[in-house]
Specification:
This protein has 250 residues and is of the alpha/beta class. 32% of the residues lie in helices and 27% in strands. The chain folds into 2 domains: 99 residues, K homology (KH) domain (GMP Synthetase, Chain A, domain 3, 2-Layer Sandwich), CATH 3.30.300; 98 residues, Ribosomal protein S3, C-terminal domain (Ribosomal protein S3 C-terminal domain, 2-Layer Sandwich), CATH 3.30.1140. A hairpin with a 2-residue loop joins strand 7 and strand 8.
């Protein structure tokens, strides 16, 4: 299961929180969902060079709060805050509500899977070998302190006639371990031969259980369940015949 699904979605409610935090009834849920999609697409398109890794959206009765996590906050804020003002006007036109824009800095972009994937994709677009781009990014990430990293590139690599998938891995990336902090990112490189998809998984360690977390309610079993194989053998009718089992010594 961990090999197939998005690592972020698999860990929501366990060690990570939702990117969209709001509630709506059936009548307005679809409209809010489309608005969230438009907001994220607009911000990623306008501020792609700023390295936007994540966008969180919170909705209240009459206002919307948008938190932008970026590696270059100065490019999003703009000179004198003009960038934030333009962002507010554009988002207010989409939602029709008062908008609050909050810009957060990602201090270590080498440990963010989305930013690493976009960096590899941009190098592929500049005709740099995908192997060189992936290996250099992996070395920088491991030097920064990551526990492990895995990369994958799929498409007509280096202009080959047949599309294929190649990847590299270093360290440990336990996708099935839900307490493992896995940062996942996906980006597409537009080349003259078509699109090349880049995926990155980065393991940043494990998140220990805290009081109140969902994982804190889970307890490791201290003994085998009652329907174990040994117990089932004892309950079989044929095993109750004399000579088929040994009596306990008194």
């Amino acid at each position: 299961m961990g090999q197939k699904v998005n690592p972020h979605g698999l860990r929501v409610g366990i060690i990570s929180d939702w990117d969209s935090k709001w509630y709506a009834d059936k009548k307005h849920f679809g409209d809010n969902l489309v608005e969230d999609y438009k907001i994220r697409e607009y911000i990623k398109k306008v501020h792609f060079q700023a390295g936007v890794a994540k966008i969180e959206i919170e909705r209240f009765a009459s206002r919307v709060k948008v938190s932008v996590f970026t590696a270059k906050p100065g490019m999003v804020i703009g000179k004198g805050g003009t960038g934030v003002d333009q962002l507010k006007i554009a988002i207010e036109a989409i939602t029709g509500k008062t908008v609050i824009v909050n810009v957060e800095e990602i201090k270590v972009p080498e440990l963010n899977g989305q930013l690493v994937a976009e960096n590899i994709a941009s190098q592929i677009e500049k005709r740099i070998s995908f192997r060189r781009a992936m290996k250099q990014s992996m070395q920088r990430t491991m030097r920064t302190g990551a526990k492990g990293i895995k990369t994958s590139a799929a498409g007509r690599l280096n202009g080959a006639d047949m599309a294929r998938t190649e990847g590299y891995s270093e360290g440990k990336v336990p996708l099935h371990t839900l307490r493992a902090d896995i940062s996942y990112g996906f980006a597409e490189a537009n080349t003259t031969f078509g699109k090349v998809g880049v995926k990155v998984w980065i393991c940043r360690g494990e998140v220990l259980r805290k009081k109140g977390d969902l994982l804190s309610d889970y307890k490791e079993p201290t003994k085998a369940p009652n329907d174990s194989r040994d117990n089932r053998k004892k309950r079989r009718p044929g095993n109750n015949k004399p000579g088929n089992y040994k009596r306990d010594k008194k």
